[in-house]
Amino acid sequence: MSTSTAFIWPTSPRLRAGSLLLAGGLLLGLAGCGSSGEGGGASSGASDSDIKIGLITKTDSNPFFVKLREAAQAEADASGAELIALAGAFDGDNEGQVAAIENLVSQGVQGILITPNSSTGILSAIKQARDNNVVVIALDTATDPEDAVDATFATDNTAAGVSQGKWVKGALGDAVPQVIMLDGTPGGTVDTFRHDGFLEGFGITDDSPEIVGQENTNGDQTKAQTAMENLIQRAPGVNALYTINEPAAAGAYEAIDSAGLTDQVVIGSIDGSCTGVQNVKDGVIDATVMQFPAKMAEEGVKAVVAFAGDGTKPSGFNDTGSQLITDQPVDGLESEDTEWGADNCWG
Amino acid sequence: MSHRGRQRLARVLREPLLGPLAALVIAVVVFSSISGTFLTPFNLSLILQQSVVVGILAVGQTLIILTSGIDLSIGSVAVLGTIVMAQASGAQGPFVALVATFGVCVLLGALNGGLVTVLRLPPFIVTLGTFTAIQAATRLLAGSQTYQVPEGSALTFLGTTFRVLGFTTTYGVAVMILVYLVVGYALSQTAWGTHVYAVGGSIQASRLSGIKAGRTLFSVYVVTGVIAAIAAWAALGRIPNADPNAYQNANLETITAVVIGGTSLFGGRGGVVGTLIGTLIVGVLRNGLTQAGVDSLYQNIATGILVILAVTVDQFARRRSL
Fold this sequence. Notes:
The complex is a heterodimer.
Chain A: H1 2-5, H2 13-37, E1 52-57, H3 63-78, E2 82-87, H4 94-107, E3 111-114, H5 123-131, E4 135-139, E5 151-154, H6 157-172, E6 179-183, H7 189-202, E7 211-216, H8 221-234, E8 240-243, H9 246-258, E9 266-271, H10 274-281, E10 287-290, H11 293-310, E11 316-319, E12 323-326, H12 338-344
Parallel strand pairs in A: 1-2, 1-3, 3-4, 4-5, 5-11, 6-7, 6-8, 8-9, 9-10
Antiparallel strand pairs in A: 10-12
Helix pairs in contact in A: 3-11, 4-5, 6-7, 8-9, 10-12
Chain B: H1 3-14, H2 18-34, H3 41-66, H4 74-92, H5 94-117, H6 123-142, E1 147-148, E2 161-164, E3 167-170, H7 171-189, H8 191-201, H9 203-208, H10 213-238, E4 241-242, H11 250-260, H12 272-291, H13 296-321
Antiparallel strand pairs in B: 1-4, 2-3
Helix pairs in contact in B: 2-12, 3-7, 3-10, 3-11, 3-12, 4-5, 4-6, 4-10, 5-6, 5-10, 7-8, 8-10, 11-12, 11-13, 12-13
């Protein structure tokens, strides 16, 4: 036996002790800074801050979600609540979001704010949370069905699409429209709402002859550039462009610029990131429709705090608004300029 | 104790389990003292349920790493499995769906194994290629859509709960433990297991000692295909939604679990017990740090440091044993 026990841990005792200490220290350090960072002691919960709120974003990597998280943190600090910010690892990480919901419920939060990765993939976890008397609020992206959560705080994406469509139509003036649609991902609810809203605002339908091209870009700049390069080959007379978001618009601009068509094409977009607003200022994008992630987060946190206070639950779809941003206002359409945009943008 | 028996015992003990086990115990003690909600039957059951899919896949990853290979495609095979299962069950019913899923996953395991053994290509490159292709094929097959599986069907059976010793858990957890037991037994008590360790230790030496190294390697990839199919089934039990974009990091998460569990990336040393502990460490960290109010980015930093720590320990162990 003595010969085999030497194999259990085939390293020096010093190394063994060192690595164990490191591991232990790491855990203690992280756990300690986590709880003290939220302003209080570490002893078994609930003593310092009575209200605990979980925030679960799609990923940690998008500035939109960073803004959402910062605004939620600020609002939580202001109302003396503790915020735990979790996220999926990538777009489509249902397992990560489900585990996050479960861990938050087990921890005893009063409310969960979530931007669902999949409108349907996490519904049973949400139901379990609500059965445990946790109020669940969707931010930015609605669930399907929408009443799977208590309430939704999000941009009315149809309205945002309508704003873009009306402005592009107005900016075209008397020119005969030749429209290209750069969509995001097929079947996404946000995509459908923005797309249909644009058509409504522009006054056309999917079958209208004015539409000379359509492509999916996943909201990705590189893909949008390739798509636009190919579409220009087919429809060199294009003069109006719908884009699902600002990266797609920036990619399309590269293609339009290379083809020497910048004076011919009116580019509309949606999002309101600081990069996007700067692009509007620089003339890359002609107009964008700003969303307000900070407002989604603030109202979400407020709703949970209210629920923790007197048990009132929020309900239904709550539009956090959108704002047309352009330096080329069109008569009859309310808009703000890029200076205002730069003060109110996110990311 | 017979000589062979003593040798087997020595091989089990040679797994550097003490470090991972100590880390797990420390983590549990620390989190229990920080959070009153951590050490409850409900929460512990939760950690197990959250570990099921990656935990099962990590068994396959352990086998392949023991042969000094690596499998980057393991998660994508399982995801394809979930799509096949969801689509086939709609048209053909759950039994056909399960058979089709196991068939597809085993075929893909055999494809990896064939490329590694017949063409003698490096497993990293082979599975990088199949990972990329399978991920794309899955999105083509699914039309980039997700498929909801009706709850209560045979496909979500592994998500149903049962009570054992006052502890409520899912059949998926039971299946995960069964997979660990079966593969653990095969590795430590059968000739096949001895061959797997020998091939991983040195493929030339194993050939010289009369082991059919190619056949052993191939079998490991096929078994991993079976394990991926089981994981696919468990995944639909956990989330009744087949999503072509799900589990994109499963390959890396399984490698993390294997490495934290003390199995050597250089092959021939380690085992599934360590991997189970490694899987649980990752699950306990994520759950416990959430209980302690730590945001997810910091949780990832903790996991990353643990991986490097584990590999450092393995490197020193390897240098000493050479």
